[in-house]
Every structure is written in C-alpha cells, then in structure tokens.
Specification:
Length: 135
C-alpha cells in the first residue's frame, strides 16, 4: 500500500474482487488466443481487433500504473500521468501485491532485455504496420 492510500480505499477495493471461471469455453478461448500470439505484430493486430482504441489505452495505462507502483511512485502522480482514478490505482496496487502475481510476472519479464529480436519487424509502413499475409 502506498503512503497516500487510505485504509478505506483499500477496504473498498478488497471487497470488489470478482471470481472468474476460467473453465468456461469463452474464457478458455481467450487464454488460448493470447497464447497463440507469436510476435508483436500479431499482438497489435489481435488487440486492435479485440478492443476499442479507448480500451487499449485503458489497459496500457493500467500496466503503466502497475509499473509506476512497483517503483513506489505516488498515487497522485500516477493519476496525473495516466488519467486513472485513485480507486483504479488502488485496485491495481492490490493485484500487483496480491498472491496471483500476474502484474509482477509481466513487469519482471518486461524489465529483462530482449535478446531475440526476430519478432520485431521493420517495415516501410511505419511502426507496427505490415501488409504481410497469414501463412
């Protein structure tokens, strides 16, 4: 918990947690789809088809908030930088420090240098754009 977080906010967030049934077909399919992504280009294409631009921005901001929280950045600074509410930041903090460790896992992997650059394609179409077809 950050020193700017009130106990009431944390208690509110702790009560919100939902139980996701990962065994239902649609949730399994989503996990399988994420695991099927082979490179950054495929990830961008899939995420853009799956979500609206606003949703992508929201999720990117949540990951950024988790990164900032892991560096002990204050809630008000995170809110200013990301536009996220203090309640959302408190929820992210709870999950960042929770037992599942999803944020921690990904943040630790993102902090390691990428040694295999075969998935980073350079195209004349600009960052992230490609006219390659599926094979």
């Amino acid at each position: 918990m950050n020193k700017n977080t009130s106990v009431g906010t944390v208690e509110l967030i702790e009560g919100i947690g939902s139980k996701i049934d990962w065994n239902i077909k649609s949730n399994k399919q989503l996990v399988d789809a994420v695991l099927a992504i082979k490179n950054a280009d495929e990830a961008r294409r899939f995420l853009r088809d799956l979500m609206t631009e606003k949703e992508i921005k929201e999720f990117a901001n949540r990951l950024e908030a988790a990164s900032l929280l892991s560096k002990d950045v204050q809630y008000d600074t995170i809110s200013e930088d990301t536009g996220l509410s203090s309640s959302t930041i408190a929820r992210i903090s709870k999950w960042l420090n929770g037992s599942l460790g999803g944020y921690r896992l990904i943040l630790s992997r993102l902090s390691k240098p990428i040694t295999n650059h075969h998935h980073l394609s350079k195209t004349p179409f600009g960052k992230g754009l490609s006219l390659r077809t599926r094979t």
